[in-house]
Design brief:
Largest sheet: 10 strands, mixed
CATH topology of the largest domain: Rossmann fold
Distance between the termini: 45 Å
CATH class of the largest domain: Alpha Beta
CATH architecture of the largest domain: 3-Layer(aba) Sandwich
Structural class: alpha/beta
Strand content: 15-25%
Helix content: 25-40%
Number of strands: 16
Radius of gyration: 28 Å
Number of domains: 3
CATH superfamily of the largest domain: P-loop containing nucleotide triphosphate hydrolases
Order of helices and strands: HHEEEHEHHEEEHEHEEHEHEEEHHHEE
């Protein structure tokens, strides 16, 4: 691939399969370089040293070929006839950075900056916030190569979803709700979305006081080698193991097992996680419950939190309806974006059409759709903004100046904004004033109040910063 060819350009010209083929070619070249370097340092490679896609297995189909045809039994993962794939050996190679004459392949992003090959991801969310609905829609986006959540799909991806909380029928209801809401035909999912609902199987468990790999670890390796997924989602993380959740050593052990899947098979691995008790702050890296090792192991950790009371006021949402709106934030301490530019979703109820004589109403199941908060600056002309600023700068008829402080009443500058923008809520008008103060359009300056007969603070306009 030429160095100036962008992955998005390739997607537009060659389609998702072209991107998939090119990515695999880049990955193969990187493996070849690594193999040559290992041979130079350590001698000829054994099977344990070779990349996964070069190790002979019972499955001869390439991971990137079209998905294998299957019956309904295949979707149920009955495990009959399956054989365990070979296990990669652990080696430690030392490389000379001066020999790195070629750049490494680009990271294998799948969906926005949510999922990436070789990385662990997670979504921290309190109960009832819509975590499963969001993840289901994101995984369907990958399986169909459609922007169902408004996030960019880099390449169509094969998905393996494991639900440890819901039974098979409940998981089918959730998938059906998303399918109906986003008008997805079954043919779009055939061979691209696989699911299972393991019960009683664990990645890690205790035996005589010692940690050990559980039955799920080997079972999952067999399924990955059989189905060749690009991403595996284990929902929720807490149900994947039988170790002490607050023990950092134990959680590090579990996360290492997940990381090995990501590294051994060059796939994305996702483990949505519950939050601790207490207020849920958007973007709080410590929001997840249990040991901090869970947070530290995930390279792509996000939070999902319901709309707050203040945000509802700002966006003009009725308090009774704010529970239907949730925001997605990168879980980095003190880096949560302002609510107006966070990624938002609206929770919707979908009747899945499964009515019977006994249950004539059928089931209503939750799904999600992208939602954008109202833009406080939209449809407000520069003429209107300048008229508002002129009136604020002029002050009140009694000689007092307007104030941007929250307790201000008669001198509240937001009232002037609402006078000129009557369709804006109080919260939206206050946000406009705060923005003007923050950017220096309005200056909070001292003046002699002729009414109170004392010095106080009031707003004046910096005429050099008027909107144009």
């Amino acid at each position: 691939m030429t160095k100036d060819l962008d992955w998005n350009d390739l997607h537009r010209t060659a389609g998702p399969e072209g991107v998939r083929e090119q990515f695999d070619a880049e990955h193969k070249r990187a493996n070849e370089r690594r193999k040559k370097e290992a041979k130079r340092v350590n001698g000829p490679a054994t099977d344990d040293d070779r990349p996964f896609d070069e190790i002979p297995t019972a499955q001869t189909k390439s991971p990137r070929e079209e998905p294998p045809p299957g019956s309904e039994a295949d979707y149920g993962f009955d495990g009959s006839g399956d054989q365990a794939g070979e296990t990669l050996g652990a080696t430690l190679d030392v490389h000379d950075a001066g020999d790195d004459t070629e750049p490494p392949p680009p990271r294998g992003w799948l969906l926005g900056n949510q999922f990436c090959r070789g990385f662990l991801s997670s979504l921290f969310a309190p109960g009832g916030a819509g975590k499963t609905a969001v993840r289901t829609a994101q995984l369907l986006s990958l399986a169909t190569c459609r922007k169902l959540t408004g996030q960019h799909v880099f390449v169509r991806s094969r998905v393996l979803l494991l639900s440890f909380e819901d039974g098979r029928d409940e998981l089918r209801r959730r998938v059906l709700a998303a399918r109906l809401h986003h008008n997805i035909d079954l043919s779009e999912l055939k061979g691209w979305l696989y699911y299972a609902t393991p019960k009683g199987m664990k990645l890690a468990e205790l035996e005589n006081g010692s940690r050990k790999r559980g039955e799920l670890e080997q079972w999952l390796r067999v399924k990955i080698e059989q189905l060749k997924p690009d991403i595996v989602c284990l929902d929720p993380f807490v149900k994947t193991h039988a170790l002490a959740e607050n023990d950092n050593g134990a959680m590090d052990y579990v996360c290492d097992l997940l990381a090995m899947f990501a590294n051994d098979y060059n796939i994305a691995v996702d483990g949505p996680h519950h939050t601790r008790k207490g207020p849920a702050t958007p973007g709080d890296a410590d929001l997840g419950r249990g040991g901090s090792s869970i947070r530290d192991a995930g390279r792509l950790v996000y939070t999902l939190t319901p709309m707050s009371e203040d945000e509802a006021k700002q966006f003009g949402i009725e308090q009774i309806d704010r529970r239907f709106y949730v925001r997605l934030d990168s879980a980095k301490v003190n880096t949560a974006p302002p609510s107006g530019i966070a990624t938002w979703f609206k929770l919707v109820s979908v009747n899945i059409g499964n009515a019977t004589e006994l249950y004539p109403a059928g089931d209503d199941v939750q799904s999600i759709e992208p939602w954008k908060p109202p833009n406080i600056w939209a449809n407000v002309s520069s003429v209107t903004l300048n008229a508002t600023l002129t009136e604020i700068d002029k002050g009140l008829p009694n000689g007092q100046r307007y104030s941007g402080d929250a307790p201000a009443k008669d001198r509240a500058a937001w009232r002037v904004v609402q006078k000129h923008c009557p369709d804006h809520t109080e919260a939206m008008c206050r946000e406009i004033v705060r923005t003007w103060i923050k950017t220096g359009v309005l200056i909070n300056d001292s003046y002699d109040d002729p009414v109170e007969r004392k010095e106080r603070k009031g707003l004046r306009l910096d005429t050099t910063k008027r909107p144009t």
